[in-house]
Amino acid sequence: MVEQLRQEAALERKPVSECVREMLQFVEKEKEGDCLVIGFAAKKDNPRAAAAPCFDLGLLAETGRGCQREAVNLMSKLADALAVQRCMVEQLRVEAGLNRLSVSQTVAELIKYCEDRSADDMLINGFTKQTENPFKEKGGCVAL
């Protein structure tokens, strides 16, 4: 566990904005070969064309009202997924902005805190009187 914490503390951290910038650069560079971005050369190249033609939003006007409902449903799901992703990005921004302490410094502070308060800890030193013990067995009434 300690070794894992040391490895995590030694990891190089990047700001979220830099990661997003790198992702955008990658997408821009790779979009030329992505059939989901530029489309298929022919309809026969699309493996989903026969299975679900209604999801092709470019052909929406040609396909009829049933597919419009499916397209609206799909757009609603996409909007929900986008909202979840926005919340996640916001949470990552908050976490990226947190002040981080080294694990060794944090552990040293925790040990010092425990040692400073060990004299007052009843679970370490025991109870001077049994009446102070909140964990003692309570007496009860006995019916004969």
Automatic annotation (TrEMBL):
Cell membrane among keywords: yes
Pfam families attached to this UniProt entry: G-gamma (PF00631)
Subcellular location: Cell membrane
Domain G protein gamma: from-to ranges: 1-57, 74-144
GO biological process, one term: G protein-coupled receptor signaling pathway
Gene Ontology CC: heterotrimeric G-protein complex
SUPFAM superfamilies, alphabetized: Transducin (heterotrimeric G protein), gamma chain
Record membrane topology: Lipid-anchor
Transmembrane parts of this sequence: none
Functional note: Guanine nucleotide-binding proteins (G proteins) are involved as a modulator or transducer in various transmembrane signaling systems. The beta and gamma chains are required for the GTPase activity, for replacement of GDP by GTP, and for G protein-effector interaction.
Family, as annotated: Belongs to the G protein gamma family.
Subunit: G proteins are composed of 3 units; alpha, beta and gamma.
Name of the featured protein: Guanine nucleotide-binding protein subunit gamma
Organism whose genome encodes this protein: Macrostomum lignano
